[in-house]
Amino acid sequence: LTPAIGPQGHVPHAAEACLACICRTDPPTPNAAQPELDAASIRQALEGSLRRLRTTYIDLYQLHWPNRYAPLWGARQYDLAAAQSWPKVADMEEQVATIGELIKEGKIRYWGLSNETTFGVCRMVEIAKRLGVPPPISIQNDFSLCYRYFEGEWPAGDARLDPGPDQHILEGKGAGCL
Asked: Where in the numbering of this chain does the NADP-dependent oxidoreductase domain appear (predicted)?
């Protein structure tokens, strides 16, 4: 997984250089979009990753960090002043539509979310359903023995999405949580 953060972009490039040496038949290649998360930035980040990885598609593409204020990293209270002072908020519909285009173009196979709130996941899934885009298949959130907030928050969101009998929006081991 190439993270969206790192000392001046060096970490993603180093990881991608190592992965580029692996034959394409080896394990799937996950990747993450850079922080801006508007359509142009998502496409630019993806094209750069495809070029550095010397591949034509990414198996799992993560939208890494919401591009809006969200109470993360231990903050449990929503701070309205912080939300209102956020400099630029990318449109979730634009993000999902861009992901749908990239899937149709064959540049990504699946997508997921990282460091996203239950609200953000539910909103993205609702938009994906409305636009006819496959929903995210994974979420990678802050979770540890000491910080288990997401464990209690997620089931309410999953139930609210009403995916149908015996289905969860984020399928797989740990309900799709990485």
From this structure: 33-146
pLDDT at 119: 80
Asked if 107 and 56 count as a contact pair (C-beta separation under 8 A), the reply is yes
DSSP 141: -
**Is it the case that residue 121 has pLDDT exceeding 70?**
yes
In a domain, 81, yes or no: no
2 lies in some domain: no
- CA-to-CA distance for 51 and 154, rounded, in angstroms? 35
Q: Is residue 78 part of a domain?
A: no
CATH number of the domain residue 157 falls in:
3.20.20.100
Nearest to 65 by CA among 140, 15, 160, 147: 140
Question: Can you tell me the distance from the alpha carbon of 113 to that of 138, in angstroms, rounded to the nearest whole number?
Answer: 6
Determine, yes or no, domain membership for 45. yes
Confirm if 42 and 95 have CB atoms less than 8 A apart. Answer: yes
User: Could you list the residue range(s) of the whole structural domain that residue 13 is in?
Assistant: 7-68+90-176
Structure token digits, residue 42: 């998502």
Name the region of 176 (left: φ>0; alpha: ψ -120 to 50; beta: rest): left
Q: For residue range 58-71, what is the model confidence (pLDDT) as tens digits?
A: 999 998 777 665 66
Contact residues for 105 (Cβ-Cβ < 8 A; gap 6+):
none
